[in-house]
Structure to design on (151 residues):
């Protein structure tokens, strides 16, 4: 499971011109589910994201988590994070999970985050979405459960 985490002042996702999810200060999470990912990956990734100290404290030091600042979370499914660009110029997405598994784990991820923060908005799995944001910092973090699980 891979994620791009962006600290934002605000973010929203639209489908056909209609806003389906919007947040103020918090995190925009672009989530890619790989073939072979499991509920364990959901928990590993969600816990790491929720504990990341990437919001500023009173001294301007990144020392607070999204929970600490009562931030909101926008989760958007993005299978293209699993792109393989090693051969040629057209990426393949063979490493991404089949849609049924990907959607199930995407839903599990959103549910887990919602249970921990209560403040989750989201896109719609498989839809053609337009995502807009005001990146705060900018602060952008890349996470991969393959790396997080290595000892």
């Amino acid at each position: 499971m891979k994620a791009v985490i962006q600290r934002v002042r605000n973010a929203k996702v639209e489908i056909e011109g209609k806003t389906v999810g919007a947040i103020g200060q918090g995190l925009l999470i672009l989530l890619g589910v790989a073939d072979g990912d499991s509920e364990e990956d959901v928990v590993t990734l969600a816990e790491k994201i929720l504990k990341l100290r990437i919001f500023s404290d009173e001294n301007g030091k990144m020392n607070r988590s999204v929970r600490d600042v009562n931030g909101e979370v926008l989760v958007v499914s993005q299978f293209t994070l699993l792109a393989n660009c090693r051969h040629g110029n057209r990426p393949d997405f063979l490493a991404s999970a089949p849609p049924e598994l990907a959607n199930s784990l995407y839903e599990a991820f959103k549910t887990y985050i919602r249970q921990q923060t209560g403040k989750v908005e989201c896109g719609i799995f498989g839809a053609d979405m337009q995502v807009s944001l005001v990146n705060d910092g900018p602060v952008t973090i890349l996470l991969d459960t393959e790396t997080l699980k290595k000892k």
Remarks:
- The longest helix spans residues 99-117.
- The radius of gyration is 15 Å.
